[in-house]
Amino acid sequence: MEGRSRARLMNDQVLVQAGAPHEVKVMTQVSAAEGLILTGEVEQVSEQLARATIYLLMDELKRYPASEQPYHLARIVRDKRFGFEVHLLRLKEVDLDDDQSRRVEEGDTVMALGKGGDSIRVLSGILDTPWVLELGPIYQMNPYPPQLLTIIVVVALTLIGLTLYLLISGLEQRLRGLESAATRIARGSLDTRVEVRGADSVGRLAGAFNHMAEQLHLLLTVQRELVRAVSHELRTPVARLRFGLEMIESAETDKARRKYMEGMDGDIQDLDQLVDEMLTYARLEQGSPALSYQRIELGTLVEQVVAEIAPLRREITVTCEPGSLVPFDQGSWIEAEPRYLHRALQNLMTNALRYAEGRVRVSYRVSVDRCQVDVEDDGPGVPEAQWHRLFQPFFRADDSRARVTGGHGLGLSIVRRIIHWHGGRAQIAKSEVLGGACFTLMWPRRQAPKVEDDI
Question: Do 177 and 136 belong together in one domain?
Answer without folding.
Answer: no
